[in-house]
Amino acid sequence: MCDLPVNGELSETVQSRLHDLADLSGFAERCQHTLTGLLQCLGWSQDFNKDRTQEEPTQLCPCDANHRVPRSSLDEHLLSCRLRHMGYSRQEQVLRGRSFTTDPVGRVGNSVLQHSSSVR
């Protein structure tokens, strides 16, 4: 069996932990007070998690597993993400509204090549 400390030592250990717990509780309360003040200054709410539960479901991006995208904007994201993986800069992607298209399979169409050669 393990050796248990005698009552005096156990009491000191428990007292030390209670003291640490009180310190941590005080710290957490001060942080909460600071956070509340900051949120009030910014006009934000602490109920942000409630708002997040109302968000639409997201889907994993097939181009980059690190991306989770709202389903409603997945098509737009896929085009941008594919172009980024092809090496197009953000500046080149800004013009994609009229110039960049995708076929039904999701591949970037020839207009990308025509646009990129005219930009350079």
Q: Could you characterize what this model shows?
A:
The chain has 120 residues and is mainly alpha-helical. 61% of the residues lie in helices and 5% in strands. The protein has six helices and two strands, in the order H-H-E-E-H-H-H-H. It has a two-stranded antiparallel ribbon with strand order 1-2. A hairpin with a 7-residue loop joins strand 1 (58-60) and strand 2 (68-70). It is elongated, with a radius of gyration of 28 Å.
List the helices and strands and how they pair.
Elements: H1 7-42, H2 48-53, E1 58-60, E2 68-70, H3 74-85, H4 90-94, H5 96-99, H6 110-119
Antiparallel strand pairs: 1-2
Low-confidence stretches are 98-120
Q: What's the N-to-C terminus distance?
A: 78 Å
What integer value in Å does the Rg equal?
28 Å
Q: Sketch the major β-sheet.
A: 2 strands, antiparallel
What's the total number of strands? Answer: 2
Number of continuous helical runs? 6
Rough shape?
elongated
The overall pLDDT, averaged over residues, is 75
Give the fraction of residues assigned to helices. Answer: 55-70%
